[in-house]
């Protein structure tokens, strides 16, 4: 673009027609920096050259890439002013631009005004829905497009597959894979990359069949780009196959392939979850040699790794070296202090964050409440819980409430914890009731434990954890026969352990939250109905 600009500026103003201006704008739109495309567009106006239907798609796309909503709206006004608001290519660009800026209603409005909707138009809408987390709407848009006999292309399939991954719709993902083969796009690199990610994210309950399918796709690729390698390394990391992730990364280096910050985030996270801190230090050295020390994603991954290893001083060293600290960085270090027993340090970090004029978010408060519960800071916990709503208009979520119940329960305030649950602003889930049941076990409160268990067995009758806790409570209370019956029920019902997840950890690594509920609409699980209430079974009633 440097040479292109020199040539452009050497052309006399009178000889710069709309074709030359469009070519120059397109160059910046395609090659970057996109902001220059907008600057050149404005100069084109100032020089009295009228844009045509080829000008606007490039300028609008640049506004989308830059999340420049104000400029995008100004260009939209010019589109209407110059009479191109009915042009299909321009309209499709507007749909994509508004979607990239999170303006879904504006995107839908432009889409509804398009008379002849082609695959590009539909793909812009579908991609907008999925990119903004409107996964069901994206799937519905895909269904409507196919229902109108509009054949999707590779970009359409790449746009819809992430919705299948997030919603764990493996069968639909497989169908789209088959459709890609039928349409002849199964050699498209972006399509295969997205399939690798989709199969990897749909691998659950320790079943590595889909991980193997992802690896098979990766191995069969004739041409792989850096996204291909990143996708496969991330699949291993997300499925707790850290050693495989590191092994593949080493192969990548052996083949003299370049890597980026996304690669290193997955590798560092793999080291963290596998406990391979020797390779973690090696990865940090690569970060330095690559000049990526200031990447917030990498520093958050490093803080997470040192948090898991208990190396709080190293976590703080990474944090202190940051030239700019975002709310994500502050949340990471607060959480690191919290889970390593440095509650007061965590709250001190929270205060420093406020002094730096950084506004806490929902996850920051979870980190602060975690610090309070691990360090027994009841009054501080009450203060932060109250502050999040009153000072920051953050409505407490289930996890905030679970932290408070755990905090009160650990302090022996069982009655207050029970009353807190009854007055929660959201419906309590198994995690909330489970925190109180754990406290009942600690303080040997059988009567309250049975009341809590009634709720738990309706919400999550599959979890082994609650049976173990209640069995322990009965044994402590001198009723070993009930404890033995619970252990027998666990064996008869083939119960499973429920894996624990911290939303702060998920947030720091930019992973999606699980969505959906397996419980019955009434709040009582179907399995509970089939097997019966465990308390009644044990009591013989």
Descriptive keywords:
about 550 residues; mainly alpha; 32 helices; TPR-like_helical_dom_sf; RNA binding; Pentatricopeptide repeat-containing protein
3D architecture notes:
Residues 515-541 have a biased composition (Polar residues). The chain is an all-alpha fold. The protein has helices at residues 2-9, 18-31, 34-46, 55-65, 69-81, 88-100, 104-112, 119-131, 135-147, 154-166, 170-183, 189-201, 209-220, 226-238, 242-254, 261-274, 277-290, 296-309, 312-320, 327-339, 343-355, 362-375, 378-390, 398-410, 414-422, 430-442, 446-459, 464-476, 480-492, 503-508, 526-531, 534-539.
What share of the residues lie within helices?
over 70%
Task: Enumerate the spans where pLDDT stays under 50 for 5 or more consecutive residues.
Answer: 510-532
Shape: elongated
Instruction: Name the beta content range.
Output: under 5%
**SS elements, strand count:** 0
- What can be said about the biggest beta sheet? none
Radius of gyration: 28 Å
Structural class: mainly alpha
How far is it from the N-terminal to the C-terminal residue, by CA?
A: 80 Å
> What's the pLDDT, averaged over the residues?
89
Helix run count: 32
Please outline the helices and strands:
Layout: H1 2-9, H2 18-31, H3 34-46, H4 55-65, H5 69-81, H6 88-100, H7 104-112, H8 119-131, H9 135-147, H10 154-166, H11 170-183, H12 189-201, H13 209-220, H14 226-238, H15 242-254, H16 261-274, H17 277-290, H18 296-309, H19 312-320, H20 327-339, H21 343-355, H22 362-375, H23 378-390, H24 398-410, H25 414-422, H26 430-442, H27 446-459, H28 464-476, H29 480-492, H30 503-508, H31 526-531, H32 534-539
Helix pairs in contact: 2-3, 2-4, 3-4, 4-5, 4-6, 5-6, 6-7, 6-8, 7-8, 8-9, 8-10, 9-10, 10-11, 10-12, 11-12, 12-13, 12-14, 13-14, 14-15, 14-16, 15-16, 16-17, 16-18, 17-18, 18-19, 18-20, 19-20, 20-21, 20-22, 21-22, 22-23, 22-24, 23-24, 24-25, 24-26, 25-26, 26-27, 26-28, 27-28, 28-29
